Protein backbone atom coordinates (compact mmCIF):
# COMPACT_ATOMS: atom_id res chain seq x y z
CA UNK A 1 0.00 0.00 0.00
CA UNK A 2 1.20 3.51 -0.78
CA UNK A 3 2.80 5.20 2.22
CA UNK A 4 1.11 8.34 3.57
CA UNK A 5 2.66 11.77 4.07
CA UNK A 6 1.86 14.52 6.57
CA UNK A 7 -0.57 17.25 5.46
CA UNK A 8 1.25 20.09 3.78
CA UNK A 9 4.09 17.88 2.54
CA UNK A 10 5.54 19.71 -0.47
CA UNK A 11 5.83 17.88 -3.79
CA UNK A 12 8.07 19.43 -6.38
CA UNK A 13 10.60 19.13 -9.11
CA UNK A 14 13.96 20.83 -9.57
CA UNK A 15 16.14 22.33 -12.31
CA UNK A 16 19.11 24.70 -12.55
CA UNK A 17 19.64 27.76 -14.74
CA UNK A 18 22.72 26.65 -16.68
CA UNK A 19 21.18 23.24 -17.32
CA UNK A 20 17.93 24.40 -18.92
CA UNK A 21 17.79 28.08 -19.86
CA UNK A 22 19.99 28.43 -22.91
CA UNK A 23 19.96 32.07 -24.17
CA UNK A 24 23.51 32.08 -22.86
CA UNK A 25 24.30 35.41 -24.49
CA UNK A 26 20.90 37.10 -24.74
CA UNK A 27 19.53 40.22 -23.05
CA UNK A 28 22.86 41.15 -21.54
CA UNK A 29 23.90 37.77 -20.13
CA UNK A 30 27.63 37.13 -20.30
CA UNK A 31 29.67 33.94 -19.89
CA UNK A 32 29.40 31.96 -16.70
CA UNK A 33 32.28 29.64 -15.83
CA UNK A 34 30.27 26.80 -17.40
CA UNK A 35 29.95 28.64 -20.73
CA UNK A 36 33.70 29.21 -20.71
CA UNK A 37 34.63 25.73 -19.47
CA UNK A 38 32.44 24.01 -22.06
CA UNK A 39 34.58 25.60 -24.79
CA UNK A 40 37.73 23.93 -23.44
CA UNK A 41 38.38 20.95 -25.73
CA UNK A 42 37.75 17.68 -23.90
CA UNK A 43 36.02 19.27 -20.91
CA UNK A 44 32.43 18.27 -21.75
CA UNK A 45 31.28 15.10 -23.50
CA UNK A 46 30.72 15.51 -27.25
CA UNK A 47 31.76 19.17 -27.05
CA UNK A 48 28.27 20.02 -25.76
CA UNK A 49 27.65 23.50 -24.31
CA UNK A 50 24.89 25.20 -22.28
CA UNK A 51 24.43 27.75 -25.11
CA UNK A 52 20.90 26.63 -26.03
CA UNK A 53 20.27 23.92 -23.40
CA UNK A 54 16.53 23.15 -23.57
CA UNK A 55 15.58 26.72 -24.43
CA UNK A 56 13.65 27.22 -21.21
CA UNK A 57 14.39 30.96 -21.40
CA UNK A 58 11.97 31.15 -24.33
CA UNK A 59 9.67 28.29 -23.33
CA UNK A 60 9.16 28.94 -19.61
CA UNK A 61 5.40 29.43 -20.06
CA UNK A 62 5.06 26.00 -21.64
CA UNK A 63 7.23 24.51 -18.90
CA UNK A 64 5.17 26.06 -16.11
CA UNK A 65 2.03 24.69 -17.80
CA UNK A 66 3.63 21.22 -17.67
CA UNK A 67 4.31 21.63 -13.96
CA UNK A 68 0.70 22.69 -13.38
CA UNK A 69 -0.57 19.66 -15.30
CA UNK A 70 1.59 17.40 -13.12
CA UNK A 71 0.13 18.99 -10.00
CA UNK A 72 3.44 20.18 -8.54
CA UNK A 73 3.20 22.22 -5.33
CA UNK A 74 6.59 23.79 -5.81
CA UNK A 75 9.28 24.35 -8.43
CA UNK A 76 12.92 24.58 -7.42
CA UNK A 77 14.97 26.60 -9.90
CA UNK A 78 18.11 28.70 -9.79
CA UNK A 79 18.85 32.21 -10.93
CA UNK A 80 21.93 32.68 -13.09
CA UNK A 81 24.39 35.07 -11.47
CA UNK A 82 25.88 35.75 -14.92
CA UNK A 83 22.43 36.82 -16.15
CA UNK A 84 21.63 39.00 -13.15
CA UNK A 85 25.11 40.53 -12.68
CA UNK A 86 26.90 39.62 -15.94
CA UNK A 87 30.23 41.33 -15.24
CA UNK A 88 30.11 40.51 -11.53
CA UNK A 89 29.45 44.14 -10.56
CA UNK A 90 26.67 45.73 -12.62
CA UNK A 91 23.07 44.60 -12.22
CA UNK A 92 21.31 43.68 -15.48
CA UNK A 93 17.64 44.68 -15.23
CA UNK A 94 16.72 42.58 -18.28
CA UNK A 95 18.14 39.48 -16.57
CA UNK A 96 16.12 40.06 -13.42
CA UNK A 97 13.06 40.67 -15.54
CA UNK A 98 13.17 37.11 -16.88
CA UNK A 99 12.97 35.71 -13.34
CA UNK A 100 10.24 38.16 -12.48
CA UNK A 101 8.13 36.88 -15.38
CA UNK A 102 8.89 33.26 -14.44
CA UNK A 103 7.85 33.86 -10.83
CA UNK A 104 4.60 35.54 -11.90
CA UNK A 105 3.83 32.61 -14.17
CA UNK A 106 4.45 30.15 -11.33
CA UNK A 107 2.29 32.05 -8.86
CA UNK A 108 -0.50 32.26 -11.37
CA UNK A 109 -0.33 28.48 -11.75
CA UNK A 110 -0.47 28.08 -7.96
CA UNK A 111 3.12 26.81 -7.75
CA UNK A 112 5.44 27.90 -4.93
CA UNK A 113 8.71 29.30 -6.32
CA UNK A 114 11.77 27.84 -4.52
CA UNK A 115 14.78 29.89 -5.56
CA UNK A 116 18.46 28.94 -5.43
CA UNK A 117 21.04 31.70 -5.85
CA UNK A 118 24.06 29.60 -6.79
CA UNK A 119 23.85 26.42 -8.81
CA UNK A 120 27.45 26.49 -10.08
CA UNK A 121 27.39 29.32 -12.65
CA UNK A 122 29.79 32.01 -11.43
CA UNK A 123 30.22 34.97 -13.83
CA UNK A 124 33.40 34.28 -15.80
CA UNK A 125 34.42 37.90 -15.11
CA UNK A 126 34.75 37.01 -11.41
CA UNK A 127 36.64 33.80 -12.20
CA UNK A 128 39.20 35.97 -13.92
CA UNK A 129 39.71 37.73 -10.58
CA UNK A 130 40.34 34.47 -8.76
CA UNK A 131 36.73 33.32 -8.44
CA UNK A 132 35.85 31.44 -5.27
CA UNK A 133 39.48 31.33 -4.20
CA UNK A 134 39.48 35.13 -3.79
CA UNK A 135 37.77 36.34 -0.59
CA UNK A 136 36.40 39.37 -2.45
CA UNK A 137 33.83 37.02 -4.03
CA UNK A 138 31.90 37.05 -0.73
CA UNK A 139 31.00 40.73 -1.12
CA UNK A 140 30.14 40.18 -4.79
CA UNK A 141 27.78 37.34 -3.83
CA UNK A 142 26.13 39.48 -1.16
CA UNK A 143 25.48 42.22 -3.75
CA UNK A 144 24.01 39.67 -6.17
CA UNK A 145 21.78 38.19 -3.45
CA UNK A 146 20.60 41.65 -2.44
CA UNK A 147 19.75 42.70 -6.01
CA UNK A 148 17.85 39.47 -6.60
CA UNK A 149 15.96 39.81 -3.35
CA UNK A 150 15.10 43.44 -4.12
CA UNK A 151 13.52 42.34 -7.41
CA UNK A 152 11.77 39.14 -6.30
CA UNK A 153 11.46 39.26 -2.53
CA UNK A 154 7.88 40.54 -2.71
CA UNK A 155 6.84 37.26 -4.37
CA UNK A 156 9.45 34.63 -3.46
CA UNK A 157 9.44 33.40 0.13
CA UNK A 158 11.84 30.39 -0.11
CA UNK A 159 15.51 31.19 -0.70
CA UNK A 160 18.42 28.77 -0.93
CA UNK A 161 21.92 30.23 -1.00
CA UNK A 162 23.94 27.36 -2.52
CA UNK A 163 23.32 24.10 -4.28
CA UNK A 164 25.87 21.40 -3.40
CA UNK A 165 28.86 23.57 -2.50
CA UNK A 166 30.92 20.35 -2.29
CA UNK A 167 30.67 19.98 -6.08
CA UNK A 168 31.45 23.56 -7.12
CA UNK A 169 34.35 23.82 -4.66
CA UNK A 170 36.05 20.42 -4.57
CA UNK A 171 34.96 18.85 -7.88
CA UNK A 172 35.44 22.21 -9.64
CA UNK A 173 38.80 23.20 -8.11
CA UNK A 174 40.38 19.86 -7.11
CA UNK A 175 38.79 16.93 -8.97
CA UNK A 176 38.68 19.11 -12.07
CA UNK A 177 35.61 17.51 -13.66
CA UNK A 178 33.50 20.64 -13.18
CA UNK A 179 34.14 24.31 -13.99
CA UNK A 180 36.54 25.98 -13.50
CA UNK A 181 38.33 22.66 -14.08
CA UNK A 182 41.29 23.09 -11.70
CA UNK A 183 43.40 20.51 -9.86
CA UNK A 184 44.42 22.78 -7.00
CA UNK A 185 43.69 21.70 -3.40
CA UNK A 186 44.54 25.12 -1.94
CA UNK A 187 42.09 26.85 -4.29
CA UNK A 188 39.52 24.15 -3.50
CA UNK A 189 39.69 24.61 0.26
CA UNK A 190 39.68 28.41 -0.10
CA UNK A 191 36.55 28.01 -2.25
CA UNK A 192 34.94 25.86 0.45
CA UNK A 193 35.50 28.49 3.10
CA UNK A 194 34.51 31.44 0.92
CA UNK A 195 31.28 29.71 -0.13
CA UNK A 196 30.50 29.08 3.54
CA UNK A 197 31.08 32.77 4.25
CA UNK A 198 29.02 33.88 1.24
CA UNK A 199 26.20 31.63 2.48
CA UNK A 200 26.23 33.05 6.01
CA UNK A 201 26.56 36.64 4.81
CA UNK A 202 23.61 36.28 2.43
CA UNK A 203 21.46 34.58 5.07
CA UNK A 204 21.93 37.47 7.51
CA UNK A 205 21.45 40.07 4.81
CA UNK A 206 18.24 38.63 3.39
CA UNK A 207 16.86 38.02 6.87
CA UNK A 208 17.46 41.67 7.70
CA UNK A 209 15.85 42.89 4.47
CA UNK A 210 12.82 40.64 4.97
CA UNK A 211 12.38 41.70 8.58
CA UNK A 212 12.60 45.36 7.63
CA UNK A 213 9.72 44.99 5.19
CA UNK A 214 7.71 42.65 7.42
CA UNK A 215 7.86 39.75 4.96
CA UNK A 216 7.90 36.03 5.69
CA UNK A 217 11.09 34.41 4.47
CA UNK A 218 12.49 30.87 4.67
CA UNK A 219 16.26 30.70 4.24
CA UNK A 220 18.40 27.64 3.78
CA UNK A 221 21.06 25.79 1.85
CA UNK A 222 21.13 22.56 -0.16
CA UNK A 223 23.93 20.08 0.50
CA UNK A 224 24.72 16.83 -1.27
CA UNK A 225 25.02 14.39 1.60
CA UNK A 226 25.99 10.76 1.57
CA UNK A 227 26.33 7.72 3.75
CA UNK A 228 29.98 6.72 3.55
CA UNK A 229 29.69 2.95 3.98
CA UNK A 230 32.86 0.99 4.82
CA UNK A 231 33.29 -1.90 2.36
CA UNK A 232 34.21 -4.19 5.23
CA UNK A 233 32.95 -2.86 8.58
CA UNK A 234 35.45 -5.15 10.35
CA UNK A 235 38.45 -3.73 8.48
CA UNK A 236 39.82 -0.71 10.35
CA UNK A 237 41.29 0.71 7.13
CA UNK A 238 37.80 0.82 5.60
CA UNK A 239 36.27 2.27 8.75
CA UNK A 240 38.91 5.03 8.76
CA UNK A 241 38.25 5.72 5.07
CA UNK A 242 34.54 6.10 5.86
CA UNK A 243 35.30 8.53 8.67
CA UNK A 244 37.43 10.65 6.30
CA UNK A 245 34.80 10.77 3.55
CA UNK A 246 32.06 11.57 6.06
CA UNK A 247 34.26 14.41 7.37
CA UNK A 248 35.05 16.09 4.05
CA UNK A 249 31.76 15.36 2.30
CA UNK A 250 29.16 15.85 5.03
CA UNK A 251 30.56 17.34 8.23
CA UNK A 252 32.82 19.95 6.58
CA UNK A 253 29.52 21.57 5.52
CA UNK A 254 27.09 20.67 8.29
CA UNK A 255 29.30 21.48 11.29
CA UNK A 256 30.27 25.09 10.50
CA UNK A 257 26.63 25.91 9.73
CA UNK A 258 24.90 23.99 12.52
CA UNK A 259 27.61 23.91 15.21
CA UNK A 260 29.74 26.96 14.40
CA UNK A 261 33.01 25.01 13.96
CA UNK A 262 34.86 22.86 11.46
CA UNK A 263 35.19 19.27 12.69
CA UNK A 264 38.52 18.73 14.49
CA UNK A 265 39.25 15.49 12.61
CA UNK A 266 38.64 17.22 9.24
CA UNK A 267 41.08 20.01 10.17
CA UNK A 268 43.66 17.29 10.89
CA UNK A 269 42.94 15.46 7.63
CA UNK A 270 43.53 18.60 5.52
CA UNK A 271 46.31 20.12 7.68
CA UNK A 272 48.89 22.07 5.66
CA UNK A 273 46.68 22.35 2.55
CA UNK A 274 45.54 25.93 3.14
CA UNK A 275 42.20 25.79 4.96
CA UNK A 276 43.65 27.28 8.16
CA UNK A 277 45.17 30.11 6.15
CA UNK A 278 41.84 31.49 4.90
CA UNK A 279 39.84 31.33 8.17
CA UNK A 280 39.71 34.74 9.84
CA UNK A 281 38.46 35.60 13.34
CA UNK A 282 34.66 35.99 13.36
CA UNK A 283 34.11 33.92 10.21
CA UNK A 284 32.46 30.97 11.94
CA UNK A 285 29.98 33.29 13.60
CA UNK A 286 28.95 34.59 10.17
CA UNK A 287 28.75 31.07 8.73
CA UNK A 288 26.55 29.74 11.52
CA UNK A 289 23.74 32.26 11.00
CA UNK A 290 20.52 30.32 11.78
CA UNK A 291 18.75 28.74 8.81
CA UNK A 292 15.10 27.74 8.45
CA UNK A 293 15.56 24.57 6.42
CA UNK A 294 18.25 22.23 5.16
CA UNK A 295 17.94 20.91 1.61
CA UNK A 296 19.33 17.42 1.11
CA UNK A 297 20.33 16.14 -2.32
CA UNK A 298 20.86 12.41 -2.35
CA UNK A 299 21.15 9.96 -5.22
CA UNK A 300 23.26 7.15 -3.83
CA UNK A 301 25.43 6.07 -0.92
CA UNK A 302 29.18 5.75 -1.32
CA UNK A 303 30.89 2.51 -0.47
CA UNK A 304 34.49 3.30 0.55
CA UNK A 305 37.68 1.46 1.32
CA UNK A 306 41.12 2.29 2.68
CA UNK A 307 42.70 -0.37 0.44
CA UNK A 308 43.53 -0.36 -3.27
CA UNK A 309 40.80 -1.49 -5.66
CA UNK A 310 40.93 -5.15 -6.70
CA UNK A 311 42.66 -5.79 -10.05
CA UNK A 312 39.36 -6.77 -11.71
CA UNK A 313 37.51 -3.64 -10.56
CA UNK A 314 35.63 -2.01 -13.44
CA UNK A 315 35.95 1.78 -13.02
CA UNK A 316 32.74 3.80 -13.27
CA UNK A 317 32.08 5.60 -16.53
CA UNK A 318 33.66 9.03 -16.94
CA UNK A 319 32.22 11.82 -19.12
CA UNK A 320 35.46 12.51 -20.99
CA UNK A 321 39.06 11.32 -20.87
CA UNK A 322 40.19 14.55 -19.20
CA UNK A 323 42.60 13.45 -16.47
CA UNK A 324 41.33 14.22 -12.98
CA UNK A 325 42.36 13.71 -9.41
CA UNK A 326 40.61 12.80 -6.19
CA UNK A 327 38.53 15.67 -4.82
CA UNK A 328 39.10 14.34 -1.29
CA UNK A 329 41.93 16.62 -0.16
CA UNK A 330 44.19 14.83 2.32
CA UNK A 331 42.39 11.51 1.77
CA UNK A 332 43.29 10.88 -1.87
CA UNK A 333 44.13 7.24 -1.17
CA UNK A 334 40.50 6.38 -0.34
CA UNK A 335 38.90 4.13 -2.99
CA UNK A 336 35.26 3.59 -3.93
CA UNK A 337 34.64 -0.05 -4.78
CA UNK A 338 31.36 -1.50 -6.08
CA UNK A 339 28.98 -3.40 -3.81
CA UNK A 340 27.30 -5.28 -6.64
CA UNK A 341 24.03 -3.30 -6.46
CA UNK A 342 22.05 -2.39 -9.60
CA UNK A 343 23.19 0.88 -11.22
CA UNK A 344 21.70 3.73 -13.25
CA UNK A 345 23.09 5.11 -16.52
CA UNK A 346 25.47 7.25 -14.41
CA UNK A 347 26.86 4.04 -12.86
CA UNK A 348 25.39 5.21 -9.54
CA UNK A 349 24.16 2.39 -7.34
CA UNK A 350 20.47 2.07 -6.50
CA UNK A 351 19.92 1.58 -2.77
CA UNK A 352 16.82 3.48 -1.59
CA UNK A 353 17.22 2.47 2.06
CA UNK A 354 20.26 4.77 2.14
CA UNK A 355 18.01 7.83 1.87
CA UNK A 356 16.01 6.74 4.92
CA UNK A 357 19.21 6.10 6.88
CA UNK A 358 20.64 9.50 5.95
CA UNK A 359 17.53 11.52 6.85
CA UNK A 360 17.14 9.76 10.19
CA UNK A 361 20.84 10.01 11.04
CA UNK A 362 20.91 13.81 10.52
CA UNK A 363 18.27 14.27 13.21
CA UNK A 364 20.19 12.02 15.56
CA UNK A 365 23.55 13.73 14.98
CA UNK A 366 22.58 17.42 14.95
CA UNK A 367 20.81 18.92 17.90
CA UNK A 368 19.91 22.13 16.05
CA UNK A 369 18.84 20.56 12.78
CA UNK A 370 16.21 22.65 10.95
CA UNK A 371 13.39 20.94 8.99
CA UNK A 372 14.64 18.92 6.03
CA UNK A 373 13.59 18.93 2.39
CA UNK A 374 14.84 16.42 -0.14
CA UNK A 375 15.72 19.02 -2.77
CA UNK A 376 17.04 16.51 -5.35
CA UNK A 377 16.65 12.81 -5.99
CA UNK A 378 16.24 11.04 -9.29
CA UNK A 379 17.95 8.88 -11.87
CA UNK A 380 19.41 8.89 -15.38
CA UNK A 381 18.41 6.11 -17.77
CA UNK A 382 18.69 5.87 -21.53
CA UNK A 383 15.20 6.85 -22.67
CA UNK A 384 13.66 6.84 -26.11
CA UNK A 385 10.37 8.01 -27.48
CA UNK A 386 8.63 4.82 -28.58
CA UNK A 387 6.40 4.21 -31.59
CA UNK A 388 3.29 5.00 -29.52
CA UNK A 389 4.69 8.48 -28.84
CA UNK A 390 5.22 7.76 -25.14
CA UNK A 391 8.44 7.40 -23.18
CA UNK A 392 8.38 4.20 -21.15
CA UNK A 393 10.84 4.50 -18.28
CA UNK A 394 9.85 1.86 -15.73
CA UNK A 395 13.31 1.91 -14.10
CA UNK A 396 13.06 5.63 -13.31
CA UNK A 397 9.53 5.21 -11.95
CA UNK A 398 10.70 2.34 -9.75
CA UNK A 399 13.67 4.42 -8.56
CA UNK A 400 11.52 7.43 -7.64
CA UNK A 401 8.79 5.34 -6.04
CA UNK A 402 11.27 3.47 -3.85
CA UNK A 403 12.93 6.72 -2.75
CA UNK A 404 9.60 8.42 -2.04
CA UNK A 405 8.77 5.40 0.13
CA UNK A 406 12.13 5.74 1.87
CA UNK A 407 11.27 9.36 2.72
CA UNK A 408 7.93 8.24 4.20
CA UNK A 409 9.77 5.59 6.23
CA UNK A 410 12.23 8.21 7.49
CA UNK A 411 9.32 10.41 8.59
CA UNK A 412 7.77 7.44 10.37
CA UNK A 413 11.13 6.98 12.13
CA UNK A 414 10.95 10.58 13.37
CA UNK A 415 12.82 12.56 10.69
CA UNK A 416 11.33 16.03 10.10
CA UNK A 417 11.11 15.95 6.29
CA UNK A 418 8.73 18.50 4.77
CA UNK A 419 9.04 17.97 1.03
CA UNK A 420 10.50 16.08 -1.92
CA UNK A 421 11.74 17.50 -5.24
CA UNK A 422 12.45 15.07 -8.05
CA UNK A 423 15.53 15.79 -10.18
CA UNK A 424 14.74 16.80 -12.81
CA UNK A 425 11.68 18.27 -14.45
CA UNK A 426 13.30 18.18 -17.90
CA UNK A 427 16.11 16.34 -19.62
CA UNK A 428 18.94 18.85 -19.59
CA UNK A 429 22.63 19.77 -19.77
CA UNK A 430 24.15 17.27 -17.34
CA UNK A 431 27.39 19.24 -16.72
CA UNK A 432 30.51 17.37 -17.91
CA UNK A 433 28.23 14.72 -19.43
CA UNK A 434 26.60 17.29 -21.70
CA UNK A 435 23.33 16.00 -23.14
CA UNK A 436 24.40 12.36 -22.84
CA UNK A 437 22.54 11.62 -19.60
CA UNK A 438 18.81 12.15 -19.24
CA UNK A 439 17.46 12.82 -15.72
CA UNK A 440 14.13 14.38 -16.73
CA UNK A 441 10.67 13.08 -15.92
CA UNK A 442 9.82 15.01 -19.08
CA UNK A 443 11.68 14.00 -22.25
CA UNK A 444 13.15 16.73 -24.44
CA UNK A 445 13.91 16.22 -28.13
CA UNK A 446 17.15 18.21 -28.48
CA UNK A 447 16.45 19.01 -32.15
CA UNK A 448 12.83 20.16 -31.97
CA UNK A 449 12.74 21.00 -28.23
CA UNK A 450 9.44 19.11 -28.03
CA UNK A 451 8.62 18.09 -24.44
CA UNK A 452 7.02 14.68 -23.77
CA UNK A 453 6.11 13.67 -20.21
CA UNK A 454 7.64 10.24 -19.57
CA UNK A 455 5.67 7.50 -17.84
CA UNK A 456 7.53 8.46 -14.65
CA UNK A 457 6.02 11.98 -14.83
CA UNK A 458 2.53 10.52 -15.18
CA UNK A 459 3.22 8.22 -12.25
CA UNK A 460 4.54 11.16 -10.18
CA UNK A 461 1.40 13.19 -10.93
CA UNK A 462 -0.78 10.30 -9.71
CA UNK A 463 1.38 9.84 -6.61
CA UNK A 464 1.05 13.52 -5.76
CA UNK A 465 -2.74 13.47 -6.29
CA UNK A 466 -3.09 10.33 -4.15
CA UNK A 467 -1.23 11.92 -1.25
CA UNK A 468 -3.36 15.06 -1.05
CA UNK A 469 -5.22 15.29 2.23
CA UNK A 470 -8.63 13.62 1.88
CA UNK A 471 -10.35 16.75 3.22
CA UNK A 472 -9.30 18.75 0.16
CA UNK A 473 -11.28 16.56 -2.22
CA UNK A 474 -13.99 15.71 0.32
CA UNK A 475 -15.05 19.35 0.53
CA UNK A 476 -16.62 19.21 -2.92
CA UNK A 477 -18.13 15.75 -2.56
CA UNK A 478 -18.60 15.35 1.15
CA UNK A 479 -20.85 18.34 1.74
CA UNK A 480 -19.11 20.91 3.87
CA UNK A 481 -22.08 22.77 5.40
CA UNK A 482 -20.27 26.06 5.02
CA UNK A 483 -20.18 25.74 1.21
C1 LIG B 1 23.38 17.06 -8.64
O1 LIG B 1 24.73 16.81 -8.41
C2 LIG B 1 23.30 18.45 -9.18
O2 LIG B 1 22.82 19.38 -8.22
C3 LIG B 1 22.50 18.57 -10.44
O3 LIG B 1 22.75 19.80 -11.06
C4 LIG B 1 22.82 17.40 -11.32
O4 LIG B 1 22.26 17.53 -12.60
C5 LIG B 1 22.29 16.17 -10.65
O5 LIG B 1 22.76 16.06 -9.34
C6 LIG B 1 22.60 14.90 -11.40
O6 LIG B 1 23.96 14.69 -11.53
O7 LIG B 1 33.63 11.77 -7.95
O8 LIG B 1 33.56 10.77 -5.79
O9 LIG B 1 33.59 13.13 -6.00
C7 LIG B 1 25.19 15.51 -8.52
C8 LIG B 1 25.69 14.92 -7.25
C9 LIG B 1 27.58 14.20 -6.07
C10 LIG B 1 27.42 13.64 -8.36
C11 LIG B 1 29.06 13.96 -6.13
C12 LIG B 1 28.87 13.40 -8.46
C13 LIG B 1 30.85 12.96 -7.34
C14 LIG B 1 31.43 11.86 -6.57
N1 LIG B 1 27.10 14.61 -7.34
N2 LIG B 1 29.41 13.02 -7.18
S1 LIG B 1 33.17 11.89 -6.56
From TrEMBL:
GO terms for molecular function: beta-glucosidase activity. GO terms for cellular component: cytosol. One of its GO terms (biological process) is cellulose catabolic process. The active site is at residues 164, 376. InterPro entries: GH (IPR017853), Glyco_hydro_1 (IPR001360), Glyco_hydro_1_AS (IPR018120), Glyco_hydro_1_beta-glucosidase (IPR017736). It catalyses: Hydrolysis of terminal, non-reducing beta-D-glucosyl residues with release of beta-D-glucose. Pfam families: Glyco_hydro_1. Substrate binds at residues 19, 119, 163, 299, 423, 430-431. It is an enzyme of class 3 (hydrolase). PANTHER family: GLYCOSYL HYDROLASE, LP05116P. Belongs to the glycosyl hydrolase 1 family. This is Beta-glucosidase. It comes from Agromyces rhizosphaerae. The lineage of its organism: Bacteria, Bacillati, Actinomycetota, Actinomycetes, Micrococcales. The gene is bglB.
Amino acid sequence: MARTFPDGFLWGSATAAAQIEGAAHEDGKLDSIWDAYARVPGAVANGDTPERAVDHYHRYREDVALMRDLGLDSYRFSTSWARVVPDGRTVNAAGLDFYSRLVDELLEAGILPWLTLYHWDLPQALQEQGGWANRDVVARFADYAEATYAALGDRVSHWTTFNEPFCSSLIGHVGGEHAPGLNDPRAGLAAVHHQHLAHGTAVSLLRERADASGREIELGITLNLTNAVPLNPHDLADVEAARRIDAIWNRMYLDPMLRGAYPADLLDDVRGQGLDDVIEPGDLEVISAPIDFLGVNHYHDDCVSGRPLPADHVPSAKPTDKPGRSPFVGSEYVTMPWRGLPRTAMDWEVHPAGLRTLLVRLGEEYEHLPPLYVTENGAAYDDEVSADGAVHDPERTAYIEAHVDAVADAIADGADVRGYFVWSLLDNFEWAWGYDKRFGIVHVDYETMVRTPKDSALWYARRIAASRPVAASASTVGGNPAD
